[in-house]
Structure formats: C-alpha cells, structure tokens
Amino acid sequence: MATHRSYALWSYCGRRWSRVMRCCRLPGFRSSWPRGPLGVRHLSQEKQATETHFGFETVSEEEKGDKVYHVFESVAKKYDVMNDMMSLGIHRIWKDMLVWKMHPFPGTQLLDVAGGTGDIAFRFLNYVQAQHKGKLKRQLRAQQNLSWEEIARKYQNEEDPLGGSRVVVCDINKEMLKIGKQKAGAQGHKAGLAWVLGDAEELPFDDDKFDVYTIAFGIRNVTHIDQALQEAHRVLKPGGRFLCLEFSQVNNPLVSRLYDLYSFQVIPVLGEVIAGDWKSYQYLVESIRQFPSQEEFKEMIQDAGFEKVTYESLTSGIVAIHSGFKL
Ligand SMILES: COc1cc(O)cc(C/C=C(\C)CC/C=C(\C)CC/C=C(\C)CC/C=C(\C)CC/C=C(\C)CC/C=C(\C)CC/C=C(\C)CC/C=C(\C)CC/C=C(\C)CCC=C(C)C)c1O
Ligand SMILES: C[S@@+](CC[C@H](N)C(=O)[O-])C[C@H]1O[C@@H](n2cnc3c(N)ncnc32)[C@H](O)[C@@H]1O
Description:
By secondary structure, the chain is an alpha/beta fold. The protein has a single domain (51-143, 160-326), classed as Rossmann fold. Helix content is 51%, strand content 18%. It contains 12 helices and 9 strands. A 7-stranded mixed β-sheet has the order 5-4-3-6-7-9-8, with helices on both faces. The chain has a two-stranded antiparallel ribbon with strand order 1-2. Helix 8 (174-187) links the parallel strand 4 and strand 5 (193-197). Helix 10 (253-275) packs antiparallel against helix 11 (278-290). The relative contact order is 0.13. The ligand COc1cc(O)cc(C/C=C(\C)CC/C=C(\C)CC/C=C(\C)CC/C=C(\C)CC/C=C(\C)CC/C=C(\C)CC/C=C(\C)CC/C=C(\C)CC/C=C(\C)CCC=C(C)C)c1O is lined by residues 71, 75, 79, 82-83, 86-88, 90-91, 217, 255, 258-259, 261-262, 265-266, 280, 283-284, 315, 318. Component of a multi-subunit COQ enzyme complex, composed of at least COQ3, COQ4, COQ5, COQ6, COQ7 and COQ9. Interacts with PYURF; the interaction is direct, stabilizes COQ5 protein and associates PYURF with COQ enzyme complex.
C-alpha cells in the first residue's frame, strides 16, 4: 500500500514537472518512450532517454525515424491494397467515422497530419462538397417562383463547390505523398487540397492556423508523441479540434485472442505475399502492441493542453477515435 502511495506521489510529481517543462518549452527537452503505466518517464529511464521502440526492437531515436521512413517508402505502392486485404475493407468504415465525427462546418480549414495517400483528405473533400451542394439545393427549394434560367445561373456561378473548406495533407514521406497526389488526380480532387512534406513533431505551419487537426494511423509511428501533440495544439485555432484515429486496446477477451492470432500469424504473411515485405507488416503489428491504451492516450492528449478530451472505441477497441479541443 505504502509502495503504491509513494509510486502514485512520484508519478504525480513527475507529471507536474514534465508539464512545467513543456509549458516553458525548454530547449532540448523531449519526453520520449518508454513510459511508465501513467505515461511518465522513470528515473531509470532517464539514462536511456535517447532510446525508444521500433516495434519490439529497442533502437536509438535517430534510428527509429529512419526505420519508419523506410517502412512507408517500401509499402507506399501497395499501401491501399494491403489495407483493404488486411481489414477486408473495415479501415474504410473507421475513416468514414472519423470524418462523420468531425462533422466539418462550411469553410473548415483542416490539417491532416501523417496523411499519407490522402484517405482522410478525400473523404473530407467529398463530405464538404456534398454538404455544400445540399445547402444550395435547400436554398433553391426555399425560393419560390425562380425561373429555370435563375436556377441554372445559381449552379453555374458556384465558383467554390467546397464552400471555402480546405485541407492540407502533411506527411514526412515523399513516396506516400506521391501516391496520394496520383490518387487525387484519378479521383478528380484538385481544388482545396495541398500536399506538404513535413514532420508531425515540427510542423511547418504558423500558430493558430487550422480549425481541425486529424491524424489517422500516424501517431503510433512518431518518435516523440508528446511533441507531436504539442504541435497539434500550437497550429490549431482557439476552439479548434484534435481528432486521432489509431489502433488501441481490445476490450473483449475472445476478440483479443483471435485478433492476436490474426495479427501475428496472418498479417505478416499477407505483407509478404502482396507487398513482398514481411518486416514492415511485422513492425505494424508490433507497433500496435506498443501504443498506449485508450485511457493512457487520453491522458497524454490532456497533458498537451487539450480540453474536453473523449474517446470512442470501435470494433471492440481494435481502434479508437480520440477527440480534444484547444480552448
Ligand atoms: C507498415 O505500417 C502500415 C501498413 C499499412 O498497410 C497500414 C497501416 C495502418 C493500418 C490501417 C490503415 C488499417 C489496416 C488494418 C489492419 C491492420 C487490420 C485490422 C484488423 C481487422 C479489422 C480484423 C480483426 C480481426 C479479428 C478481430 C479477428 C477475426 C479474425 C479471424 C476470424 C481470422 C482469425 C485468423 C486466424 C485464426 C489465423 C488463420 C486464418 C487464415 C490463414 C485465413 C486468413 C483469414 C482472413 C484473411 C480473415 C480475416 C478476417 C477479418 C478481417 C474479419 C474481421 C472481423 C471482425 C472485425 C470481427 C500501417 O501502419
Ligand atoms: C499508416 S500511414 C497512415 C496514412 C493515412 N493517414 C491513412 O489513414 O491511411 C502512417 C503515415 O504516417 C507517416 N509518418 C510517420 N512518421 C511521421 C512524422 N513524424 N511526421 C509526419 N508523418 C509521419 C508515414 O509516412 C505514413 O504516411
């Protein structure tokens, strides 16, 4: 009991201290993996501050960045087909749910970090376009006695079918962005979309710039998650929303056993057969197990300064959507 209490006190002091350090933004300070159960670094871990995890491997922080870059450079061409095969299309529903949860308002400025091949950005553009079209239709229906010419003119004068909404896709990997741009061309997305090469830990954007920040299946790959969360907070406007879709902790024991079996026995095999890349898919399943639980991640988001932080577990907790606001 006494040990538990002193641990709790030590954890609390650690958390307060890291918060103070972060608020001061002292140069050189970076709280990194591995963490204790409350997302707090321990003294024994201080010595290994430059070490982190790459899946189940312990590597230096520099090595992790390079390895993650190599993984996505290697899988980029087969990324979309692999996701459909591995999840039997379920990842599409999770991504749709992220955009439905966002429920963007007309004129929303979205930053999609670790946006890769554009799945979230394209869903956002389709959503705001449909929303804007619906608004125009409702306006026309409400106006009685309009002539056919007036109705046609209204449609033709529609200069911005997105109603002012915009999305910036930011990713550290050139190959993923290249595939994304090709997909955008093929799907007819041009307006309201920008592609930026950049690191989630040091975003190349001004403070208070975006209404919404999304990150889907990206934050797990970032070396300093707390740094990425602080950057999310910085670039959001006051009132802006943070939304993260990420693998999480399965809450059903039967699903958990099947999922583990499927993850370790099937996914790397699919990776080898379809993408010729066992190792990257081994990394995927291992990195999922290293990521904090719903509650731990919620606490990390709060530590970065977000408020009203909530989460929703989907598919028995295989993934979760976390939400927070910059107030
Ligand atoms: C390198 O890093 C990455 C690379 C990427 O390409 C992507 C990402 C980021 C990730 C995404 C964008 C999402 C990708 C999706 C996944 C990783 C998959 C998530 C998994 C699921 C939605 C399915 C979860 C599965 C279960 C709960 C267990 C159900 C599974 C079974 C009944 C099969 C159990 C398997 C065995 C016992 C092994 C023997 C089976 C075989 C050899 C046959 C193979 C079977 C299949 C292909 C069936 C698979 C079945 C499903 C998917 C059914 C789904 C069912 C439910 C959700 C309940 C990235 O970071
Ligand atoms: C699994 S993909 C997710 C892509 C997309 N968001 C989706 O949902 O399909 C992970 C992406 O995170 C990117 N990534 C990894 N570390 C990053 C970092 N530090 N900054 C920005 N992007 C990063 C990778 O290049 C890759 O494109």
